[in-house]
Amino acid sequence: MPNTAESQILAFVRSRYPQAEITGDQDIFSLGFVNSLFAMELVMFVEKTFEVTIPNEELRIDNFRTAGSMAELVGRLSEELAA
Amino acid sequence: MTVIGVVGAGVMGVGVAQNLAQTGHDVVLVDKDEQILQQALANIERNSRMSRLMGGPALDADAILARITTAVGADALAKAEIVIENVTENWDVKREVYEALDAACGPDTVFVVNTSAIPITKVGAVTGRPDKVIGVHFMNPVPAKPAVELIPGFHTTPDTIERTRSLLAAMGKRAVDVKDSCGFISNRVLMLTVNEAAYLVHEGVATAESVDEVFRSCFGHPMGPLETADLIGVDTILYSVEVLYEHYADSKYRPCPLLKQMTDAGLHGRKSGRGFFTYAN
Hints:
The structure holds two protein chains of two kinds.
Chain A: H1 4-16, H2 36-50, H3 67-82
Helix pairs in contact in A: 1-2, 1-3
Chain B: E1 3-7, H1 11-22, E2 26-31, H2 34-50, H3 61-66, E3 68-72, E4 82-85, H4 91-104, E5 110-113, H5 120-125, E6 133-137, E7 147-152, H6 158-170, E8 174-177, H7 186-202, H8 208-218, H9 225-232, H10 234-248, H11 257-265
Parallel strand pairs in B: 1-2, 1-4, 2-3, 4-5, 5-6, 7-8
Antiparallel strand pairs in B: 6-7
Helix pairs in contact in B: 1-2, 7-9, 7-10, 10-11
C-alpha cells in the first residue's frame, strides 16, 4: 500500500482523469491530456488537504510530476513544520 | 511614471493588471465592488506564485502587488494615460462604463476595449473621443499569451494606434492586425466551435470528455473546446455568442440552450469550480 498522502493525491488525480490508469510513479504531465493549469489545481489541493504552504522555491513542475513526488514534498514540508 | 488604468477585475482584468505590473507599469485597478477588488489581488498573488509552475518566469508576487493600487469607481482614473477596459461582454454594461470613463478621464486618455466580440466603432460612438478608442483582444491567461488581436475602430487615429502598440510591446505582446468586425478572427471561429461542441453534449451525441478527446488526440490541440470554454467562462462564451447572433442576425450563431442553462445555474467553468468539467479551486 502506498502511504496516505500518496494515495490521497492519486485519488484526486484519478477523479479528474478517470479515463487514464495512473500509478503513483507515473509522470502525469507526460500523459498528453494534463496541461499546466492542472498543476495549479494540484498545488491548491495539496496545500488545502495537507495544511501546508508550499514555498515559492518548491513550486517547480518536478515536484508535481508524480503522486509519489508530491507525497515526498508533503512529507518534507510537514517535517519542517514539526521541527 | 505613467499610470495605466485597468477597469474590471474579473479573469481578464486580473491578467492584464498582473501583466502590466510585472513589466514595470504602475496600475490602477478599478471595479464597482471592493470585495471583487480584494479577490482580484488575492488571485494576482496566487497567479504570480504559480507563474514558474505554469511555464512562465519566476515572479516576485510582492513586487507585482506593490505596483497595483485598487479603487472603486472611474474617478480614480483621471490621470491615467491609457485605460484598458475588461468588463463583462454585455453591451448595456459596457456602454454605462464608457460613459463614466469619458466623464472621469482627461481628454488625451486612450480607451482600450478588451473585447472578444463587440465592434470597436460602436464603443467609440458612445464616447466623445472615438479617435482615441481602440480594441485589443487579450487572450487568457494574459501574462502567458504572446499575441493579441489589435483592432482600430472607424475613427481611431494613427497616433492612438501607435500609443497602443508601444504599450503592447512593453507588455511583451505581439499585435495581430484585424479590421473592426464583430468577433474579429478569434471569436468568429472559436465561439461557433464551442457553441457547436455544446450542442453535441446538449443533444447527447457525445460527452464533454469525448468532444475534447477528439480535439486533443486527433487534431493535436493542447485543449479541447469545452475545457477552453471552462477556462474562458461559460457565461462569457454565452454572451459572446449572443453578441455575434445579435450583430449578424444570422441563425448560425444561435446560442446553445445548454450554455444558457449552465450560465443560469452558476456553472461558469474554472472560475466557479464547475462548468463542463469539475475543478478543485
